[in-house]
Amino acid sequence: MGNQKNPWISALVLVGLLQKVSGLSNTQVCNPGLSETIHSYELNALQEELRDYGFIILGFPCNQFGMQEPGKNYEILPGLKYIRPGKGYVPNFQLFEKLDVNGVNEHALFKFLKWNFEKFLVGPDGRPVMRWFPRVNISEIREDILKYFRQLVQRAE
């Protein structure tokens, strides 16, 4: 991240990465799979815009809800690139292997976040500072993150 404009690193944790939706106004980040939605491009834009501030998007595919991500881990990126959303799409943020977000094999991250189909902003201290309902648009999340960054700068001054 070399050229950061401030020393704080925050992460937007995305449960599952993409969501099958029928309309553009119904975008989601959580509970995904290989998706028809265009918000994957919005996530790339958000990562690009805020990366110099130490912002990182973390995507966690999951197949626990309606077979959203039924393939093997090695099939996820080609599926995004060639199928949904397709057209050569490649996420510019960290995409992890599939994991369980609840149940017997629940990943420790989601035990900590008390996950429930929401998006989380994790602050520089590793604690969740904001969370959003599944149907909140990326543009609204962006505004909340920018407001949070401004608060961090004001506290440091």
Automatic annotation (TrEMBL):
Q: Which GO terms describe its molecular function?
A: peroxidase activity
* Descriptive protein name: Glutathione peroxidase
| UniProt keyword Phosphoprotein present | no
Please name the InterPro entries in this protein's record.
Answer: Glutathione_peroxidase, GPX_CS, Thioredoxin-like_sf
Signal peptide span = 1-23
> So what family is this one in?
Belongs to the glutathione peroxidase family.
Keywords annotated in UniProt: Oxidoreductase, Peroxidase, Signal
